[in-house]
Design a protein that fits this description.
Layout (H helix, E strand, L loop, with lengths): L1 H21 L3 H4 L19 E7 L6 H9 L8 E7 L4 H15 L5 E5 L6 H10 L9 E4 L5 E2 L3 H11 L3 E10 L6 H24 L10 E4 H6 L10 H11 L3 E12 L5 H28 L5 H36 L7 H15 L10 H24 L17 H4 L9 H4 L2 H20 L5 H15 L8
């Protein structure tokens, strides 16, 4: 498993270097003609675009997301904005509806939609929005979560790729984080997500024209959504589900690294853990449901099937979590108690070091945090492995959906989570505390009887497990 992950990271590293040095830019690989304003035709040469903003009790961020969507540089008569509000708080509902009415009074074509229930969660809301009669006039749909703020020229830069290339289904933008410097927790997340955008999605887009849709900051061709079977709520990664189904029908995707949308990272450990459970459990459960469908598909070539099954799903979504947890948090510590078992130096040090360095290329500004990032990722691998197994075995919290808490990036809002941390018992993560005790005992044994000096790593890893176990990561600046 370690070698599989090493080869995957090495492959990604080689390909991204080739892409940066020799691949043509997206404007050269695909047909691309900017849509120009025409005095005679007016706005008729602009396609009608639907913008969907799914929300759920988004008191802190609803204004900035709605304002950003209404500020898009696109002809007003060719833009339809849907605010899909699944809020359960009547006060928040009233606030969001009032904001929509305020923009509507300025001539913006914005509609406020609610449902009687939250069936299907986000997928259900997006699906319901596409059923509206006025949507039949729309060719494309741009999706932005409630904390996302696209730049005014977002559509003008993305839509031409779809308009000029009929085989293209999706244009995905990169996320930029407004609160990445808030605390150590957000810095750690930035390092992981920057690798995902800088390497994984860039490689998938350049080589196979496939990657997993991120659920937001992307523009879809509505015809592709319909042909793929529409939004489905069978897993908690409805975005990835749609992307895989569309890809199996021959549609192509494009990732634009220089097209960016501002967003917010979870700044509390509780919110981050819920998010990571969904992001780990969902892909594993989707893999269980779709692997044979991918194998039997006849519309894509053999190598694309291999890429999707082996690289995209198996190594990145399953192996990556499990090898990190089982090897570094279970097997390696146990070898101290069983001295007859010897882990070669290349397996314990060299390969992990190379994998770590390759993972860090996306965020060079945080290179000095690399060692702590390793320790933190090892801790989170326990949580992700548990979620992955739940998804693969389809039991327990497999369909749990907890909306990621958003706090806004104003100074007043950043301070608000502190009042939610007052209950000490609610912050405890007993599984992490249990592993901290296990690693501490192994470290003590190695300090007394060992020969490899693993206790240095084990004691540091113990401290990190304790920090996460007591729920203090989000407070470290």
């Amino acid at each position: 498993m370690s070698l599989m992950l090493f080869m995957e990271r090495l492959y990604m590293g080689v390909v991204i270097i080739l892409v940066k040095l020799f691949w043509k830019k997206p404007e050269q690989r695909y047909k691309y003609e900017p849509i120009q304003d025409d005095v005679e035709l007016g706005s008729s040469n602009f396609p009608v675009v639907l913008v969907q903003i799914p929300m759920f009790n988004e008191k802190e961020v609803y204004k900035v997301s709605i304002g950003a969507a209404c500020g898009l540089s696109w002809p007003a008569d060719r833009l339809v904005i849907q605010v899909l509000d699944d809020s359960t708080d009547p006060v928040v509902k009233q606030m969001v509806e009032t904001e929509c009415q305020r923009w509507a009074s300025k001539g913006i074509n914005i509609t406020y939609q609610i449902r009687e229930n939250r069936t299907g969660y986000k997928a259900g809301a997006l699906k319901e929005g596409l059923k509206r009669s006025y949507v039949k006039h729309c060719e494309y749909v741009a999706i932005f979560d409630a904390d996302f703020r696209p730049e005014p020229d977002f559509l003008r830069r993305a839509i031409p790729f779809l308009a000029c290339n009929p085989e293209m289904a999706l244009v995905q933008a990169r996320w930029r984080f407004v609160n990445s410097n808030e605390c150590l927790l957000t810095r750690m997340q930035e390092m992981s997500l920057d690798y995902h955008f800088t390497v994984e999605q860039e490689v998938g887009s350049a080589t196979h024209a496939f990657f997993g849709f991120n659920g937001t900051a992307g523009v879809w061709r509505i015809a592709a959504i319909n042909e793929a079977g529409g939004w489905k709520d069978r897993t908690t990664v409805e975005d990835m589900d749609l992307a895989v189904r569309a890809s199996l029908r021959g549609w192509k995707f494009l990732y634009l690294g220089d097209l960016q949308a501002k967003s917010e990272l979870p700044s509390t450990l509780r919110a981050f853990r819920y998010q990571q459970h969904r992001w780990s459990c969902g892909p594993a459960n989707l893999f269980r449901k779709m692997v044979m469908e991918i194998v039997r598909n006849k519309k894509v070539n053999f190598w694309k099937k291999v890429y999707v099954i082996y690289s995209f799903f198996f190594v990145r979504k399953i192996i990556a979590h499990m090898i990190t947890f089982f090897f570094y948090c279970v097997v390696l510590p146990l070898t101290i108690l069983v001295p007859e078992v010897h882990v070669p130096i290349w397996g314990a040090v060299y390969i992990p070091s190379i994998i770590t360095i390759l993972n860090s290329v996306g965020t060079p500004r945080s290179i000095h945090l690399l060692f702590y990032w390793i320790l933190f990722e090892n801790v989170m691998s326990l949580h992700r492995t548990k979620a992955t197994l739940i998804g693969l075995l389809e039991y327990g919290r497999v369909n749990e959906w907890v909306v990621t808490e958003k706090l806004g990036d104003s100074k007043s809002n950043v301070k608000t989570p502190k009042k939610t941390r007052s209950k000490f018992l609610e912050r405890l993560n007993l599984l992490e505390l249990g592993f901290a005790a296990f690693l501490f005992l192994c470290g003590c044994y190695d300090f007394v009887h060992g020969k490899n000096n693993y206790f240095v790593y084990l004691f540091l890893q113990t401290i990190t497990f304790l920090i996460v176990g007591f729920g203090y990561v989000g407070t470290i600046v």
